[in-house]
Amino acid sequence: MTPLHYLFGQPQASADLRTHNSDFIVQEILPFLPTGEGEHHMLHIRKSGLNTADVARMLSSFAGVHPKEVTFAGQKDRHAITEQWFGVRIPGKSMPDWQSLNSDQLTVLSSARHGKKLRTGALAGNRFTLTLRAVSDMDEVVRRLELIKHTGVPNYFGEQRFGHDGKNLIFGRQMLNGSKKVKDRNKRSIYLSAVRSHLFNQVVSERLRQFELKVLEGDCVMLAGSKSYFVANPWDEALNKRLDEQDILLSAPLWGRGQALCEAEALTFEQSVCEPFAVDCAGLEQAGLNQERRPLILLPQQLSYEINDDTLVLKFALPAGSFATSVLRELVDYQDVKEREFQARRAAASEQAHD
């Protein structure tokens, strides 16, 4: 995949990430509280060494319901400690003993009834506590942290979106050109999202490379904390002030059907970046996706850090759909220890299979 532009230049300091599961802690922020009534059971679960699908299967089996009756707002990694919400639809008065599911890998923190299904994306955001070990140049990392606290980072979709070796993007393109048939709705969604996310990343990267954080006539700007947008044409003193105060945000396209949402200079620029990916764009339109926007810059909230020798503990919150790894890539050249271990096991298995 094409290397993406760094807002502050490529980091020179190195560090290890996810030496232990406890080095990557994620807590979902739900935008509502369970009502206490209804046929949906809301479960707040802490897990380690399990991915979201693992837990969903466990809940389905335990409750004796079809897997489609188990829902969750977001996907969370296996190699982390995560606090995540699940919904289980159980009509009637049945109240399973959810606490009996508790184990070394899973703890049911709370359970309550709710009147509505928990849907994908129904999150306000996530809180992160990340531990970086063997930091090679702490002064440089702290300097970049202060830049990030003030300016933010490129709002790239993280490598998780594209799968190991970018296979989600590869399969997505194959699916769109008809060379790969995909019937599973969840996989289709994952592959489409990978293609769309790749386009977004390319536009953001090139925009920052060419213009840094300068505005363009016809920019489509978003109201902070919402998906509402409008076109800034022309830019004036009042709009520049709102941008400085982060009341409005620059944006880049999530490709789909319909007329482009920016105009003038911004439209010309975005079209020029997307032109080499015309096949991807056409495929996304034919798949039924509509034009949307996503902020160009991601500003971590409540960012704080603690230093102990060569170890750095970072704490921050991000809105739903944002990636902690996009913050980290701008901060330090990190090595994901768990990913490195996975690649080593896969290489060993491949070598053994060829013996």
UniProtKB/TrEMBL annotation:
Active site at D77 (nucleophile)
Q: E.C. number, please?
A: 5.4.99.27
Q: Report whether Transcription shows up as a keyword of the record.
A: no
For this protein, the record's SUPFAM superfamilies field holds: Pseudouridine synthase (SSF55120)
Q: What class of enzyme is it?
A: isomerase
Q: What UniProt keywords apply to this chain's record, in alphabetical order?
A: Isomerase, tRNA processing
A Pfam family reported for this protein in Swiss-Prot or TrEMBL: TruD
Which positions fall inside the TRUD domain?
152-298
Name the PROSITE patterns for this protein. Answer: TRUD (PS50984), UPF0024 (PS01268)
Q: Which reaction does this enzyme catalyse, per its entry? A: uridine(13) in tRNA = pseudouridine(13) in tRNA
The record's family statement is: Belongs to the pseudouridine synthase TruD family.
Functional note: Responsible for synthesis of pseudouridine from uracil-13 in transfer RNAs.
Q: What is this protein called?
A: tRNA pseudouridine synthase D
Protein species of origin: Shewanella marisflavi
